[in-house]
TrEMBL record:
GO MF annotation: an example: oxidoreductase activity
Limits of the FAD dependent oxidoreductase domain: 11-362
InterPro entries membership: FAD-dep_OxRdtase (IPR006076), FAD/NAD-bd_sf (IPR036188)
Pfam family, one: DAO
Protein name: FAD-binding oxidoreductase
PANTHER family linked: FAD-DEPENDENT OXIDOREDUCTASE DOMAIN-CONTAINING PROTEIN 1, SARCOSINE DEHYDROGENASE-RELATED
Sorted UniProt keywords: Membrane, Oxidoreductase, Transmembrane, Transmembrane helix
Domain of life: Bacteria
């Protein structure tokens, strides 16, 4: 279903998170006029309430691990070309196990990474302790993924929107997509009808109501703790520490249902630590809770005791948009032309965001996919029976 071939078409992008902002960038680069509409403000969704792991090492084996490698490569390219200069940097992820069960998961995961062609260094616990001074000796095994990276979602959104310079409409929730003769011709918003040649829905969890994806998309809350800065404003070590319980949660969602905490300690360049996180399935509120915040801190101090010297300055929660099958939804709407969907990035959207924004833009433009792997796993048509559209309100229909 090609939508906006040639240049100069007017595209509406619904949602100013990392995916919508990246799509807007690639669409304007191709010569299209873009209007980005957000119910709130840019970065108001998960992209502004997340960690910044651009991590292949943490991905579920299979399709997502393959896509993440391309997504990480695109970050490297965009950084090199100046688009994301100063926002992305390469750094290792240190995956670690605290007991025999975690060691088993870690060993399996390391093998899957190697099979997928990802560079992996198996580290002795002495080597890990040398790289991360002050680490507890209770760690039983560790692996480093040297080519991972980091980027802050809100900074990527801000940069993409600045470079794209689309028309941005804030505080205008899109209520429905208007279809005429089987084709999207614009959107009904709180601020009235807006016409377009094509529409891209990249509204995170908001896509659920717009597309009738109630059974397909689920909220998954994540809580995070931020510490104060180090006296020297330097990262304490050179890469993120990620527990094998995080990998278990990624590989098998039921693991986080049993225990929602999967420990990550992220040493930010400011000298702060970001300590996460929870995966609370079905929860879409932005509240942090004493139970989980204290649980995460206890686990973090057990592994990295010098955290005891730090102050907590903030806690926050963000809401991931998860799909029932664990794969994002990116592609043409199965029933209507000129309508594209990009949602369901769960805990991977900062890593995947620019690549998925580019892919969504290609689909909007009816261009061939530039990825060298098949993208059929992303197709909305796998949920063809469910994917629909929100019904316009009677007042919107009369306008
Ligand atoms: C705690 C936490 C930690 C995370 N850590 C990482 C990480 O380390 N690495 C990683 O890769 N990913 C991480 N993620 C996941 C990542 O943040 C998300 O996958 C990504 O931000 C999703 O981007 P998006 O553009 O699809 O959606 P969002 O950022 O949620 O943006 C959607 C936008 O749509 C708008 N919207 C919604 N409904 C409507 C409507 N009806 N009309 C108009 N606008 C609408 C919203 O206001 C919002 O601005 C984390 C997420 C959380 C919550």
């Amino acid at each position: 279903m090609s939508t906006a071939k040639g240049s100069g078409a007017h595209i509406i992008v619904v949602g100013a998170g990392i995916v919508g902002a990246s799509a807007a960038y690639f669409l304007t680069q191709a010569g299209h006029a873009v209007t980005v509409i957000d119910a709130d403000t840019p970065m108001a969704g998960a992209s502004g309430a997340s960690d910044g792991a651009v991590s292949v090492g943490s991905k579920k084996p299979g399709f997502l691990m393959q896509v993440a490698q391309r997504a990480r490569d695109l970050y490297v390219e965009l950084q090199r070309d100046g688009v994301l200069s100063g926002l992305f940097y390469s750094r290792p992820t240190y995956l670690f196990a605290r007991n025999a069960l975690e060691a088993e998961v870690l060993s399996l995961h390391a093998t899957d990474l190697v099979d997928a062609g990802v560079r992996v260094d198996r580290l002795s616990t002495d080597e890990l302790a040398h790289r991360i001074p002050g680490l507890s000796r209770s760690i039983v095994s560790a692996v480093s993924v040297p080519d991972d990276g980091h980027a802050l979602g809100y900074q990527v959104v801000e940069r993409m929107l600045r470079l794209a310079a689309p028309r941005i409409i804030r505080h205008a929730a899109v209520r429905s997509v208007r279809i005429e003769h089987g084709r999207a011709i614009g959107v009904e918003t709180d601020a009235g009808f807006m016409g377009a040649d094509a529409v891209l829905i990249a509204a995170g969890l908001g896509s659920k109501a717009l597309l009738g994806l109630g059974e397909i998309l689920r909220p998954r809350k994540g809580q995070i703790v931020i510490t104060d800065r180090a006296a020297d404003n330097q990262a304490a070590f050179d890469g993120q520490l990620m527990s094998a319980s995080y990998l278990a949660a990624k590989r098998d969602v039921s693991a986080s249902k049993r225990d929602p905490i999967s420990l990550v300690i992220d040493p930010l360049l400011t000298g702060q630590f970001l300590i996460g996180g929870t995966r609370e399935d079905g929860l879409g509120d932005g509240e942090t809770t004493i139970n989980y915040v204290s649980g995460m801190l206890r686990q973090a101090v057990d592994i990295y005791p010098s955290l005891e010297q730090r102050r907590v300055i903030r806690t926050f929660a963000g809401v991931r948009t998860a799909t029932v099958d664990g794969i994002p939804i990116v592609g043409a709407h199965p029933h209507h032309a000129a309508l594209t969907i990009a949602t369901g990035f769960e805990g991977d959207g900062i890593c995947l965001g620019p690549l998925m924004g580019r892919l969504a833009a290609e689909i909007v433009m009816g261009k061939p996919c530039s990825l060298d792997i098949g993208i059929s796993p992303l197709s909305p048509s796998r949920f063809s029976a469910a994917v629909g559209l929100a019904q316009p309100s009677p007042t919107a229909q009369q306008r």
